[in-house]
Specification:
It is built from 10 helices and 25 strands. The protein folds into 3 domains: about 1-45, no CATH class; about 55-185, Zn-dependent exopeptidases (Aminopeptidase, 3-Layer(aba) Sandwich); about 255-400, Immunoglobulins (Immunoglobulin-like, Sandwich), CATH 2.60.40.10. Helix 2 packs across helix 4. The longest helix has 20 residues, at about 165-185. About 25% of the residues lie in helices and about 35% in strands.
Length: about 400
């Protein structure tokens, strides 16, 4: 006996009834919704994004684009089954609201627009850097801020500084906000193709060539081998060949934790000894990495090891052949900022170069974690930012402990 299969509301054929357990397992592993209707012999599988509701609040006193930006976000989220409610400033604890998206536009005398991301405790463990990096040519990312909002609704605040607006910039900002909303729901798991509707995007019908008479003429030319190469095409081919032989300089790196967890039964605390590794996997030199460890909950995790306060870095640092070596915290008020935001920023004591295929990092970091309540989760996430080239990335893994 066969069962009809419906994916995100579209019929996609049939499959054997005895394959239902395998599909149920697949859906559970990929956070997909599974529903079997016995009397119609139909299985519905859909994305967990379908039915989500976002409260959108655009705050803007300078640019007359509030409705335009809201329209873009509403249009872009619609294919995912996510609806937008625009009275976001009211009734934030309503059960039907799954995310509060606050967008604040302000005027600034700067050439390139910039964005800051604010997160409350519901979203604090999510890393948006890969999403934001897509838009680095349009909007510069200026970092995270922990919001004091303790409401039941996850709160994402995007503060955008720009000197002027145009339709192209608003579209890019709409794309960025849409992806941030999806990331807020997907969180740190891998998105399934059903979440992003990639099945329909890459379907056979979508990939068909348009029925253009010019295509037939091109096929005739190819069959007769009457291909003429213009001078510009010849020059482009030479450039492609040159780039293949000498690939353009592109920064790439792998970043990860190597750690051990050691419980201390006497003090009811946990010690984590970690190395934070940075490996240059690109073909260009990486200069002066700035490292951020984001810990949550901030008040329950302390950091130690061979990282020096800035005022002591010159006195107590290890002296190598080229001078002071090692790592220091960034800024005089680094500790106050860490307690407030959960972010410890660290930089080399003096200039550091990481050549291609070279590995470096911080060794012997000590995180001390107080015992939490049951079902609480503590996380430590690492980020690296290279100011030259505006290159930033997050660690391939994170330290997570569930009590």
């Amino acid at each position: 006996m066969n069962v009809k299969l419906v994916l995100n509301g579209e019929e996609c054929g049939e499959f054997p009834y005895d394959s239902i357990p395998a599909l149920q397992y697949y859906c559970a592993e990929n956070n997909l919704k599974f529903n079997l209707t016995e009397h119609t012999q139909t299985v519905d599988i859909s994305s967990s994004l379908i039915g989500k509701k976002v409260w959108l609040n655009v705050q803007n006193d300078t640019f007359p684009v509030k409705d335009r930006l809201s329209e873009f976000v509403d249009t872009y989220l619609l294919p995912y089954g996510i609806s937008v409610l625009t009275d976001a400033g009211k009734n934030l604890n309503k059960k039907e609201g799954d995310l509060y998206l606050e967008v604040s536009l302000s005027k600034a005398e700067r050439v390139k627009p910039a964005i800051n991301i604010g997160l409350n405790s519901k979203l604090n463990s999510i890393d948006y850097s890969k999403i934001l990096n897509i838009y680095k040519d349009h909007i510069e990312f200026n970092g995270y801020k922990l919001l004091s909002d303790t409401g039941q609704v996850p709160h994402l605040k995007c503060t955008v500084q720009l000197s002027d607006t145009n339709d192209e910039l608003l579209k890019q900002l709409g794309f960025l906000l849409t992806n941030c909303v999806i990331k807020s729901f997907i969180q740190n798991r891998t998105a399934h193709q059903l979440d992003l509707n990639l099945s329909s995007l890459f379907s056979a019908e979508a990939m068909k060539k348009p029925n253009n008479p010019l295509n037939h003429e091109k096929e005739k030319v190819l069959d007769k081998k009457e291909v003429e190469v213009s001078e510009s095409e010849y020059e482009q081919a030479k450039i492609r060949r040159k780039n293949k032989m000498n690939p353009p300089k592109q920064p790439q790196a792998e970043v990860y934790f190597d750690f051990n967890l050691m419980p201390n039964r006497k003090t009811e605390k946990y010690s984590i000894k970690a190395d934070f590794i940075i490996k240059n996997t690109g073909n260009t030199i990486l200069y002066n990495p700035k490292i951020c460890f984001r810990v949550n909950p901030a008040e329950k995790i302390e950091i130690g090891g061979q990282i020096l306060p800035p005022e002591m870095s010159e006195i107590f640092s290890v002296q190598g052949e080229t001078g002071a070596e090692g790592w220091k915290y960034s800024g005089k008020d680094w500790l106050e900022k860490a307690y407030a935001t959960g972010e410890y920023w660290i930089e080399p004591i003096q200039g550091l170069e990481i050549h291609p295929a070279e590995t470096t990092g911080i060794e012997g970091i000590h995180f001390t974690l107080e015992n939490l309540n049951e079902q609480e989760v503590s996380t430590i996430i690492g980020f690296v930012y290279f100011e030259e080239g505006n290159f930033q990335l997050s660690s391939n893994n994170k330290i997570m402990i569930t009590f």
